Structure formats: structure tokens, C-alpha cells
Amino acid sequence: MTKLFTTYRVLALVVGVLLLVGTLDIILKYGFSEGSGPQSLGEDLDVVWLFHGWIYIVYVIVAFVLTQRARWTLPQFLLMMIAGLVPGLIFWVEARVARQIRAQFPDLQTAGSA
Amino acid sequence: MTHPLALRMWPAHLAGLAAVATAVGLGVWQYDAWQARRDAAAVDITREEPVPLTSVMGSDDPFPGADVGRPVEVVGTWIGSGTVYVSDRERDGVTGYWVVTPVSVGTADAPAIPVVRGWVDRPDDAPAPPSGDVVLDGWLQPPEGTGVMDTDRDDDIVPQVRMADLIQHVDRDLYGAYLVTKEPTSGLEQVTLSQLPQVDQFTGLRNILYALEWWVFACFAAYMWWRHVRDETREPDGIEDAAAGAGPEPAAEPAAEPLTDGSVPSNP
Predict the structure, then answer these.
(1) Read out DSSP for A32-67?
(2) Which positions in chain A touch B228 (Cβ < 8 Å)?
(3) What residue spans carry the Low complexity bias annotation (chain B) (predicted)?
(4) In-domain check, residue A33
(5) How far apart are CA B145 and CA B148, in angstroms?
């Protein structure tokens, strides 16, 4: 459980950061005129979506296993899933999940924060 | 026990179906984009400006693999007597012949390169072989040769554009390549290239990875759907058993009072 919880938190952080970079990418790509410096930087940053997509799949699966272990409901899982798609949301959801998991499994109190 | 097709299960079925269909569809879309990209990249080199043949390869050189389909310009002289007909060539569903005439590259007695002048349905319908000096643009193609033998070496019909066969029909050295002319001789039809350039294996890599990603996701959505239906339709007394066997370490975790909203009741 400790490993699973830590994995979830790391993945959530990575997905969250990649999503922010991806959002920046879209702003640069579509917010600047064709051929300008920021625009071409946006084109180069496109690849971040590839990483986001694959890591997101792993994140969703880990989140699913975590909710199964903790015996949470489907809406809980769906919230964790959607959090990986809305920029910024995942940081709040991750903190919330961590709080609930720690309350539910007191043994993690120390291990999880390491 | 709820039947899997009970009315209250239908929203779940619809959501599951929509999720799977969407993910599969997006995967197919990316897969199509991947193919389109590769096809476009393959055609790109064939649209470049022609370069002199002699700058791409010499008459004794092996075929330059990177130049498949590259437009080249040849200045030379037709060798009309060396004309052959390559059999079993399809065009718009009709089987016919390629009309191939060598061109000596540079001076009249220099090594020659076979030029596919066009397609005809019967050799008798082909216009008379050309003669004299010529400047032509064509696409460079590697010689064929998959082991089909020329069964009748005395006629001017060959099964393939194979240098070992063609050399029998012309008293000249041949390049290890042939050309498909950009403008077919009048009376002949345009031939499409049989060999397009090799596409870099990384071309469109991102698209195929996206496609795979969506399909993995479709599988996951289908799994979620199946699980949800199973959980909803299971006999009530079966829940405890299944939950106990769900995790590898169920006993090791003292399930504390869950604080989650709407979470399952704690163990008795």
C-alpha cells in the first residue's frame, strides 16, 4: 500500500506538471502568430502531449488500483481520472486523496510524507 | 440481483459504449493520420527539382538507396533498337506492357539507362521507337529482379526490368537503374512508380503512438465498464467474498473508518 500510494503521488505530480507544460504549449502554439519564436517553441513542445498521454494511462490505472484497495466509490475514481485532464486540478485532488488515504490508513502517516 | 440489461443499468451501458467507441475512433483517426503522413513523406522526394543523373550515380555504381524515386535529368541519345516490352504490367485494372527504350547517357556510345516511356495494352500498338538526341526528366528506380525468368530470349518481351535480361537487347553497358519518364511518349500512357522512396521509420511516430494510446485507453474503458456491471449485478452476499480476495494483502491493512464521502461502509 505504501508503495502504491507513493507511486500514485509521484505520477500525479508528473501528470500535473506535464499538463501545465502542455497547456503552455497550446497557448504558445495558437496564441502567437505563425513563424514567430514563441509559436515555433510551441510546435517543438508538442511532444509533451505524447508523454502526458502515456503517463496518464499509467496514472489512471494506478489510481484505479488505489481506489479499489481503499474501497472507494466510482465517482471518487472518476474525479481522480478527470483531474489528469484539467490543468491544475490534479494538485488539489492529489492533496485531497492523500489526506483521505492517510486518515483511512494511519500506518501511512509517516511513510507517505517521506 | 440486478439483471445486466435491467433499465437502471442502461446509463452505465451507454456511458461505457460511448467511452469505448470514442477511444477506438480517436485511435483510428490517429492511425489514418500516421499513414497519410508517411504517404506524403514518400511522395515528397519525387516532387523535388530534377538533378543530373550523373550527379546521383555512375554507370558502374550500385543503386543509391536514398535516391529511389528522385527526379533526374538525362541528356543523351535514344537507342531505339534496344526497345523492349515488359509484360504483365497493370494500369487501371488492365494488364499491358511497359515500353522501355535505353538512352545512352552523354555521348552516343556511352553506357545507357533504360527508360520506361509509358504503358501500352499491346506491343503492336506502341509507337515506333524514338531516335536521336534527347533531354528528359524521369524518376530514378532500382532494377527489378525477383527470379522470374525470361522464358523466350529471342523476342523483345521481358518479364521484368532486370539488367541481366535487358543487356541482351542492347550492345551497351547499362546503369544499375532505370527511369520512369515524366512525360510519356505520345500514344503511351503514364506509368506510376512501382517503388516509392523508403520513409524514415520515425516519420509519423507520434501519430502511431497516439493511436496505440487511445486503443489502450479503449481497453481500459471496456474493463471499467465490465467491472461496474459485474459489481452492480452480483448477488449481495457475494460482495464480501470478492472483496476479501481482491487485494493481495487484504488482512494486512486494518481498514480504518473511512472519511471519504460516499465510501463503502467499514468492515464489521
Answers:
(1) S-TTSHHHHHHHHHTTHHHHHHHHHHHHHHHHHHHH
(2) 74
(3) 241-258
(4) yes
(5) 7
Interface test with B, best of A71, A97, A109 (most B CBs within 10 A): A71
**Is B154 found in the same domain as B121?**
yes
Residue B88, classed as helix, strand or coil, is: strand
- Tell me: do B36 and B79 sit in the same domain: no
Q: Give B252's DSSP letter.
A: T
Residues B160 and B213 grouped into a single domain:
no
CA distance A32 to chain B (A): 23
**ipTM of the complex model:** 0.72
Give residue-wise pLDDT tens across range B38-55: 888 877 888 889 999 999
Count of structural domains within chain A: 1
B216/A contact by beta carbon, under 8 A: yes
Is the CB of B220 inside 8 Å of chain A's CB atoms?
yes
Examine residue A114 and state whether it is found in any structural domain, yes or no.
Answer: no
Does the beta-carbon distance from A53 to B210 stay under 8 Å? Answer: yes
Residue B184 has pLDDT above 50, yes or no: yes
Over the stretch A25-74, which tens digit does the pLDDT of each residue have? 888 888 887 777 787 787 778 888 888 988 999 999 999 999 988 888 88
Tell me chain A's radius of gyration from C-alpha atoms: 16
Task: Name the A residues in 3-42 with CB < 8 Å from any B CB.
Answer: none
